[in-house]
DNA sequence: GTCTATAATTAGATAGAC
DNA sequence: GTCTATCTAATTATAGAC
């Protein structure tokens, strides 16, 4: 009974952690749906079931909230690592399937949030660019030793961005409703060809 | 000297046409850069060098301005028609090259505006979806007579959306700086394979 | 930590003079 | 057609009680 707000020793999780988490979840959902400017901290607070002032208490200001929402330090590294552990063989299908399964799972994928958002001109797009470069392009290019490794990896970025936008942002048919297996087979082959196929 | 504001017979172009055009140009640029909610009509008016009230005079409200900015009736039909006139042979390269040349020309492409915008949930994305369905998917699928025609056309949508987003929205390297010829060759082959290649 | 004000700013939209 | 002035509503952000 003396543990619920004791400052030094957390009785549960310092008692504000779950509120903070709910705010983050709500922020990811709304930023993804309505973009940065289209999302109000009031709406986030309402969605999270807390007071608007709490959001500022936790994250300082709206930009801080956004930064926390799209921060993906140690977000999906387990799945991503598994993609590259198998080497080049069959990597096309693995990368497509991983992307699909992660985004279908409706864990708010930073990819979708960043694609639909953008505070000013630079902030968000730079973030997304760096994320793609670091997490995808860099690791893919490292597996190749051809002189056009960067371009081949870039072609894969086109495939993955296109898939994400077509299926989750624009929701164009029949891509939006296609099964994970179908897309994995078809786009996986394309990705594989971009990486290991003969240059045309 | 009696012609500058005569209502029935336009002496020049009813004298407000160029203002309207400047507003539209400014709107396209700002909507593309900052999205719908991130763009204020005041900013559009300032960019266009007119008074904010003029924007409402011309377009009624902000949504009307947006609708006019992304309206692409008879926008680029000449170029698009040329893609399909040549039949299936080499259509991959033609569609990629046409897209690149049109968007590089920095004519505010509705594709870029719509990709970065989205008033609420539905309005814009529905518009973009319908545009893609009508202008690309439909015409591509019509050229094919395989049972998976729709899926093949959908795969092309993934390629084109991915290219547009990677090169013009996120500007990820080396796609953003690659030459039109390089991209046309590489992605054209992929698109061609998606359409006429053997199903894997 | 959580909530109740409330300050300060800004946005969309309108009325009306010229 | 174009501009000035203004109204209304919503938003970010803060101060402070509990």
Automatic annotation (TrEMBL), chains A, B:
Entry keywords, A to Z: DNA-binding
Record-annotated HTH tetR-type domain positions: 17-77
Domain of life: Bacteria
Pfam family, one: TetR_N
Keyword DNA-binding part of the UniProt annotation: yes
InterPro entries, alphabetized: Homeodomain-like_sf (IPR009057), HTH-type_TetR-like_transc_reg (IPR050109), HTH_TetR (IPR001647), Tet_transcr_reg_TetR-rel_C_sf (IPR036271), TetR_C_16 (IPR041678)
A GO MF label: transcription cis-regulatory region binding
Residues within the DNA-binding region(s): 40-59
Record's keyword annotation contains DNA-binding: yes
Name used for this protein in its record: Transcriptional regulator, TetR family
Organism of derivation: Stackebrandtia nassauensis (strain DSM 44728 / CIP 108903 / NRRL B-16338 / NBRC 102104 / LLR-40K-21)
